[in-house]
Amino acid sequence: MELNNQNSFGIGEGELIEIIYELPLPMRLDRWLVSKRPEQSRARIQHFINSGLVLVNYKTAKAKTPLKNGDNIQIWMPPPEPLIYLKPEKMDLNILFEDEHIIVINKQSGLIVHPAPGNKSGTLVNGLLFHCKDLPGINGKLRPGIVHRLDKDTSGCMVVAKSQEALVNLQKQIKEKIASREYIAVIHGAPNSEEGQIVGHIGRDKLNRLKYKVVEETSGRYARTYWKLEERFGNYSLMSFKLDTGRTHQIRVHCAHINHPIVGDPLYGRCKKLPCKLDGQALHAIKLGLIHPINGKEMIFESELPLDFQKLLSVLKVK
């Protein structure tokens, strides 16, 4: 119901949602809310809880509060954030597939996915809004249709939802690891074995807030990356990666952690002369697998390597 007056939360306009917990087994508040509100991101749910916008039995709760059968949960949903500067912009998009529910893009390096403070235009979202007239908004954020993202200087396959039904389904596929994402990269050095995995909790670097690093379990989020050595080029190697989790900068952080950073990475790479000029780091999302969110068809998309990545491989093979 919509309320315009002050209420038990001490705030004004918004939507008050009241739910009775009916599961026989206890569950953490944040996990239960994510399962009940799949259109909301986990980060947004936790922000609501930390801001005191969720009450359990009429008392403020914490994310780890255990819910029991019969508990009363009240969630105060603030009005959506205004999307006033999400302006459609004509943009050349490399479209791999499109129908009324999804669009799959081969994103170029150097393109930011969604607007943020300091980057209000020229993003993939601005281009998508021009191309897709009815792109849905997600939770009042500036990320309409965005299901997952690629870093600015990472190129490759991305799927974007064009309907709310597709959005919720694709979010579930990524969460439950039904969707698969494969990457290819050139790294400094060469690993001792042909394949393996990197496991390490990832958290923000306290000395540089723009960076992430492998940290203790208590201060980061679990992350696992599978890798395979594809080819050696002296002091460099071509590697393929599969994500078991999808943390921010995950492949870049894990590669740096094992002392084989990605070539051209401005944050985690080595400061040395590169074999050739690169538009971004030599990291490309080469393959994306998913189940079509509406018709259930299994789909696999592959994207061609950028020209600068192809040139890098050519130069390394000659050396």
From TrEMBL:
A single GO molecular function term of this UniProt record: RNA binding
GO biological process: enzyme-directed rRNA pseudouridine synthesis
Domain RNA-binding S4: 27-84
Lyase keyword on record: yes
Pfam families: PseudoU_synth_2, S4
Main enzyme class: isomerase
Reactions it catalyzes: a uridine in RNA = a pseudouridine in RNA
Entry annotation: catalytic residues: D151
UniProt keywords, alphabetically: Isomerase, Lyase, RNA-binding
E.C. numbers: 5.4.99.-
Entry keyword RNA-binding: yes
Functional summary from the UniProt entry: Responsible for synthesis of pseudouridine from uracil.
Protein family membership: Belongs to the pseudouridine synthase RluA family.
Cross-referenced NCBIfam families: rluA_subfam
Name the UniProt record assigns to this protein: Pseudouridine synthase
